[in-house]
Amino acid sequence: MNTKRNFCKKYLGFGIISILMISTILAVFSPATTSVMSVHENLAISATAKCIKTYYFDSYYPASGWTNNPQYMVDGNISTFASTSDDEQIEMLDGNTCLGTELGTITKVEIRAYGYYASSGNSADIRLTPFFPIMGTKNTYVFDCTNSPSWSAWFDITNDSSAPEWSFSTLTYFDCQVKSSGSGNFILNCAKVIVRVTYIPCRWLNINSNNYDSSCGNDGSHTCARALDGIDDWEHTATETHWFIVDLKGNYSISKVRGKSVTTRDPTNVNIYISLDKSDWGTPIAAGISWSDAGTWREFATISKVGRYVKVEIIDTEHPNDYVQFGSMPKPMKIFDVYGCRP
């Protein structure tokens, strides 16, 4: 009932390939150039990765239904068919197998049906009409069936007249009307209606020294940039509000952060801000975070907000003078990461 066909695709165009070739050439001929794993790689990964998930309608409104075996249209099996010989008979599909978990930013939503008309009668077609909670004009898509079982084309419903702002939660409550259309003697069969969603996935962005922008300071070689790489801790012996800023190299919708630290001066009161331009930070998207004795990643949800720059503000630490030592020594570890989706 909940079988899903899920797969991810990486779309790498000639432009991205060219960027990677240029990066390789620069690495060979310019050994002193900083970081072969640079901005180009970050952008290539985040801007080109797309995933697809497919769901099927698995329930129908009991007051509707095709004449014969209406339950077969929602059983997930393309070998069993609901059927009708009546023109304009409706089966209203009112639920699908999407669970509503937000997996990323949706870029396209499509539907299609599997069916046929019996060869002993006249031809007929299946008409699919998506229904959304927002009332408005309905778009109808026609599947010109053949006399052998087959899939229709994919119908793009992303920008339907009354379509919602798509998210995985809105996918859970849109319905689809399946209507027969034929004349004379016909038998129309439909086994399944499915939804295909293309999206840019959310992911942990693997924040590292390439993302480092600035900080309040450091003690010698114990820099924030090195701590972001997990090769040192970040130390700053000063009684003040400590901070650092990372550059995500593009706009992301941020929903979680995570951190690790096991020292005697771990951060115990941390605020997180996000900004599009590094000027207007607004109010914190998370406040009062503690990474005290966090030997493994400790996650915190944030208010969802779009931006490019993330500021980590450490107000208090375990030290009585609020000196900060973020990370771990003598076995250092990465200290901070951000979970984001391309808007």
Description of the structure:
The protein is mostly beta strands and 343 residues long. It folds into three domains: 5-49, no CATH class; 50-201, Jelly Rolls; 204-341, Galactose-binding domain-like (Jelly Rolls), CATH 2.60.120. Helix content is 10%, strand content 45%. The chain has four helices and 20 strands. Strands 1, 2, 3, 4, 5, 6, 7, 8, 9, 10 and 11 form an eleven-stranded antiparallel sheet that branches. The radius of gyration is 27 Å and the shape is rod-shaped. The model is unreliable at 1-48 (pLDDT under 50).
Please tally the helical runs, counting DSSP H or I stretches of 4 or more residues. 4
What is the SS-derived class?
mainly beta
Number of strands: 20
Biggest sheet character: 11 strands, antiparallel
Envelope shape: rod-shaped
In whole angstroms, the N-to-C terminal distance is 32 Å
Radius of gyration: 27 Å
Domain module tally: 3
Q: Which architecture of the largest domain does the CATH hierarchy give at level 2?
A: Sandwich
How confident overall, as mean pLDDT?
87
Query: Percent of residues in helical segments?
Result: 10-25%
Q: What is the chain-wise order of helices and strands?
A: EHHEEEEEEEEHEEEEHEEEEEEE
Low-confidence stretches: 1-48
Question: Which CATH top level class of the largest domain fits?
Answer: Mainly Beta
CATH topology of the largest domain: Jelly Rolls
Strand content: over 45%
